[in-house]
């Protein structure tokens, strides 16, 4: 029996047993990855997975399951276990249902590429070209991954949703090294293979890596900082979690009770767009089957909404933003709206500051207040009178996320698409300039 | 389980010309329960059945996995993997594996109270009990997030060298996030408990008492906390702090794959080089080990995911760098035998070098003796924020429950003392180690795709001399 037939079988059985709401999703994914380091391929990897996800609400008792086991007997076992499980579960008095279909859906533009689906081991050629390009441009060593994937999703709900979607992506990362303490990482992704230029990313990584040779120890203090799109995306990724209504309820958000209030500089507009053309997380529908949409989250610094599914939206007396997550609403593609300045013009506005090309290990002291610290990684440079100068190392940014967003004084005009090891939510962001960022370092 | 499929897969890869093949079959069932501000958010259970394979041909490594347990499907995947390794061979890292004994064994971690004998109702009741106790404290706790989970994994590992291991490992985990409010200020803590074994450990933890103690300490800190002194002082760091320090800067930098550069674009590299073996990194009282064999530990295993027998590794011995963590590949590269540090979190991830349970060995003092000898200092019991750079030098730990020490006595709470220090500074500042070892659970992140793997980290209380706190 095909997985989709199993979906229908499961849905009907659960409804007959008295379930109020049921969502059954089947996801089939075929992926490959070339992992490389020291200019050589470490491993070639392939994955083929089928996932069956079931959500059931019965008298406000909610049970979720994910099964990586496909057979009719396994499905029947799951149904029996769900019904047994739900009997002893406790009702969630705040549960308020799932999206009511039927819906009409729009295809994601540039969401599926046959070239990716049939790429196979030709992916090795891309990695080879990128490594060679980085070496030609002066890098001594490179490391990274090139990943390609095809996903087919089908969704069936008890609220008249029967939908399918398919998508592809290519994701490339490269970290170029010129010494242990001189490096640069660049990442890129695309749903369409020809729109991903791995050699350009390799060249950019190599040039910054070379420039970051012989770093000195950085100083502590307040600095105006130009963030590359990659490190700013790291911060926006963390903001994305704070935007979820679930996080607001769970005490994991610094944006609680801030709707309608200024949470960032007026130069900052942030959009969550599940329909974005060639967006990494774009899809026709969310996990409940609601058609994805474009939501302005922060408009000129003012918080407009949280990310919602049907149930959290009802609790907040608003409409779903089509960001289900069955348990927790999740961001899709977060876009920092571009503005006026080229990167050069951002540098020119800095008298005494820093240029940061990557961040890692962002951790919060208090999600509720937004106090956190994060560590610049790879090339870090002093900016003096508008010009990039001495590379530095050994510093940390110790800040408050709302304070940092309020201190954004200029936003670049050239967005980049970021996803990666430290940035789980796809972010489209230009470089930004933030004033008076608190920089610390180990105490002598 | 589909053991016959795994056996077939290993043989089939050899038939197609592989020099080495290895299959890892996983069958996992798991349950989870979440209580958010007193509301049972959802209950859930998951089931995994899948096969992962590593194949080496012409010194080129390929990995493939599927949960479609069909012979023809697996044959096709193996063929594709062989083809891809051939295509990659001109640009491959040369893969050689250290010679190791082919182990054949079967083991199961015993459960006194079987996870399957405890119904969902009883499991979520424990969270409700904790919620009730939290409310009874009358402390303002605007967010209370409690989650309890358990899993039962059976792994079957077979390789073409003759290894054949069947392991059954149950795990239990409790996670909480609590926010305490006082006079419009909040303080927050996230912590986790985890062990291998049955439900008896969940009962032993006494979840209500854990969370009540936590909120009382947070409230006391908010109510009476003072700013930490600015001058250089001594720090007595309790086991939770020592555990995270040792994990981050006493474990990670000694993972051989990081040292070689294989994780360069992911978790990063290391300040440690092969040439630093045998050199001093800390005071002679510092002994750091990684030991998968601690009974019922969260990172327990008897054989790693390459079938190598697990043993205790002395990473730092009397302050001297003594041993790196190795898999068969890194061991061969450095002319050694593997010390059994290869792990993968699920069937669909390649095994890589990982920690298991990493901790500082106890010394001869009791904690009170460490404190008695401090004129001005901080007793840091636990933390919330922490991080470390990707070379594992520059690290930060921000105290949550912390107290001032004056003339050998614990005084009032201190608000957010910050240790921001380099690894050599840290390990050289340790002058005394207590005997009150504790172990704490975490999920360590590494690899791409990410592999959050269960570990313990721990140790006894330690004393750091002449530290200037960060801002």
What does this structure look like?
- The complex is a heterodimer of chains A (444) and B (471).
- In chain A, 23% of the residues lie in helices and 38% in strands.
- With 444 residues, chain A is an alpha+beta fold.
- The model of chain A has no long low-confidence stretch (mean pLDDT 96).
- In chain A, a hairpin with a 2-residue loop joins strand 1 (21-37) and strand 2 (40-58).
- Chain A has two domains: 3-210, PmbA/TldD fold (2-Layer Sandwich), CATH 3.30.2290; 215-440, no CATH class.
- Chain A has ten helices and 22 strands.
- In chain A, the strands form three sheets. In chain A, strands 7, 8, 13, 14, 15, 16, 17, 18, 19 and 22 form a ten-stranded mixed sheet that branches. In chain A, strands 3-2-1-4-5-6 form a six-stranded antiparallel sheet. In chain A, strands 11-10-9-12-21-20 form a six-stranded mixed sheet, with helices on one face.
- In chain A, helix 1 packs parallel to helix 2.
- In chain B, strands 1, 2, 3, 4, 5, 6 and 7 form a seven-stranded mixed sheet that branches. A six-stranded mixed sheet of chain B has the order 19-18-15-8-24-21. In chain B, strands 11-10-9-14-23-22 form a six-stranded mixed sheet, covered by helices on one side.
- Chain B folds into two domains: 3-224, PmbA/TldD superfamily (PmbA/TldD fold); 233-467, no CATH class.
- Chain B is globular and about 70 Å long.
- Chain B has ten helices and 24 strands.
- With 471 residues, chain B is α+β, with helices and mostly antiparallel strands.
- In chain B, helix 3 packs parallel to helix 5 (207-224).
- Chain B starts with a helix and ends with a strand.
- Helix content of chain B is 23%, strand content 37%.
- Classes of the chains: A alpha+beta (444), B alpha+beta (471).
- Chains A and B meet through strand 1, strand 2, strand 3, helix 2 and helix 4 of A and strand 2, strand 3, helix 2, helix 3 and strand 5 of B.
């Amino acid at each position: 029996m095909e997985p989709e037939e199993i979906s229908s079988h499961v849905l009907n059985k659960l409804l007959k047993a008295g379930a109020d709401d049921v969502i059954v999703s089947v996801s089939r994914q075929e992926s490959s990855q070339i992992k490389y380091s020291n200019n050589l391929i470490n491993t070639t990897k392939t994955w083929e997975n089928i996932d069956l996800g079931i959500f059931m609400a019965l008298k406000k008792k909610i049970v979720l399951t994910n099964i990586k086991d496909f057979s009719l007997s396994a499905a029947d076992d799951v149904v029996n276990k769900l019904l047994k499980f739900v009997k002893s579960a406790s009702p969630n008095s705040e549960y308020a249902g799932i999206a009511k279909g039927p819906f009409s859906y729009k295809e994601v533009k540039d969401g599926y590429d046959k070239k990716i689906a049939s790429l196979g081991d030709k992916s090795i050629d891309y990695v080879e070209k990128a490594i060679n390009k980085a070496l030609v441009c002066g890098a001594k060593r490179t490391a990274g991954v090139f990943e390609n994937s095809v996903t087919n999703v089908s969704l069936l709900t008890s609220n008249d949703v029967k939908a399918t979607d398919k998508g592809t992506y290519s994701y490339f990362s490269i970290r170029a090294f010129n010494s242990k303490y001189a490096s640069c990482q660049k990442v890129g992704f695309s749903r369409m293979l020809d729109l991903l230029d791995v050699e350009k990313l390799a060249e950019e990584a190599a040039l910054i890596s070379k420039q970051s040779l012989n770093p000195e120890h950085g100083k502590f203090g307040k600095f105006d900082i130009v963030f590359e799109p990659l490190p700013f995306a790291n911060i926006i990724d963390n903001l994305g979690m704070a935007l979820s209504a679930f996080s607001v309820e769970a005490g994991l958000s610094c944006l609680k009770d801030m709707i309608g209030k200024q949470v960032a500089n007026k130069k900052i507009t942030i959009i969550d767009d599940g329909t974005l053309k060639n967006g990494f997380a774009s899809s026709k529908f969310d996990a409940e089957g609601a058609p994805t949409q474009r939501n302005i989250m922060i408009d000129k610094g003012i918080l407009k909404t949280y990310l919602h599914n049907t149930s959290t939206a009802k609790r907040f007396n608003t409409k779903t933003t089509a960001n289900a997550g069955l348990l927790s609403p999740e961001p899709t593609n977060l876009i920092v709206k571009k503005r006026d300045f080229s990167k050069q013009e951002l540098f020119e506005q800095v008298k005494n500051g820093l240029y940061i090309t990557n961040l890692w290990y962002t951790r919060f002291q208090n999600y509720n207040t937004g106090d956190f610290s994060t560590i610049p990684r790879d090339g870090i440079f002093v900016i003096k009178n508008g010009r990039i100068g001495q590379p530095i190392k050994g510093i940390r940014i110790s800040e408050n996320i709302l304070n940092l967003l309020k201190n954004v004084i200029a936003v670049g005009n050239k967005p980049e698409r970021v996803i990666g090891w430290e940035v789980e939510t796809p972010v489209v962001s230009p470089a930004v300039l933030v004033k008076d960022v608190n920089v610390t370092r180990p105490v002598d | 389980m589909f053991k016959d499929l795994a056996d077939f897969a290993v043989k089939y890869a050899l038939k197609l010309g592989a020099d080495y093949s290895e299959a890892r079959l996983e069958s996992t069932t798991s349950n989870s329960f979440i209580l958010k501000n007193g509301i049972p958010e959802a209950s859930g259970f998951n089931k995994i059945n899948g096969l992962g394979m590593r194949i080496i041909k012409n010194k080129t490594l390929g990995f493939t996995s599927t949960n479609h347990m069909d012979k023809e499907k697996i044959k096709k995947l193996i063929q594709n993997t062989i083809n891809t390794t051939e295509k990659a061979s001109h640009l491959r890292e040369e893969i050689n594996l250290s010679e190791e004994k082919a182990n054949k064994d079967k083991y199961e971690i015993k459960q006194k109270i079987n996870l399957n004998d405890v119904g969902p109702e009883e499991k979520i009741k424990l969270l409700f009990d904790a919620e009730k106790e939290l409310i009874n404290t009358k402390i303002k706790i605007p967010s209370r997030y409690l989650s309890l989970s358990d899993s039962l994994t059976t792994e079957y590992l077979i390789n073409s060298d003759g290894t054949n291991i069947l392991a059954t490992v149950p795990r239990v985990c409790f996670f909480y996030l609590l926010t305490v409010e006082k006079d419009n200020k909040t303080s927050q803590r996230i912590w986790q408990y985890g062990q291998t074994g049955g439900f008896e450990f969940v009962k032993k933890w006494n979840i209500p008492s854990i969370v009540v103690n936590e909120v009382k300490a947070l409230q006391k800190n908010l109510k009476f906390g003072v700013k930490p002194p600015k001058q250089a002082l001594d720090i007595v760091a309790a086991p939770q702090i020592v555990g995270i320090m040792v994990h981050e800067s006493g474990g990670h930098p000694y993972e051989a794959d990081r040292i070689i550069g294989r994780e360069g674009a992911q978790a990063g590299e290391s300040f440690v080089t092969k040439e630093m073996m045998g050199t001093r990194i800390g005071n002679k009282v510092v002994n750091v080990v990684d030991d998968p064999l601690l009974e019922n530990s969260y990172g327990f295993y008897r054989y790693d995911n390459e079938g190598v027998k697990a043993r205790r590794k002395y990473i730092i011995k009397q302050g001297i760098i003594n041993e790196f963590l190795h898999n068969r590949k890194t061991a061969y590269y450095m002319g050694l035998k593997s010390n059994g540090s290869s792990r993968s979190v699920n069937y669909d991830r390649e095994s890589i070098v990982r920690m298991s349970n990493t901790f500082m060995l106890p010394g001869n003092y009791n904690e009170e003796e460490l404190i008695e000898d401090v004129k001005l200092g901080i007793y840091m019991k636990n933390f919330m924020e922490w991080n470390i750079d990707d070379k594992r030098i520059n690290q930060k730990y921000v105290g949550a429950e912390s107290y001032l020490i004056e003339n050998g006595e614990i005084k009032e709470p201190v608000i957010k003392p910050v240790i921001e220090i380099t690894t050599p500074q840290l390990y050289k500042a340790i002058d005394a180690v207590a005997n009150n070892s504790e172990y704490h659970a975490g999920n360590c992140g590494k690899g791409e795709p990410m592999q959050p793997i269960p570990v313990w980290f721990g140790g006894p209380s330690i004393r750091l001399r002449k530290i200037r706190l960060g801002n």
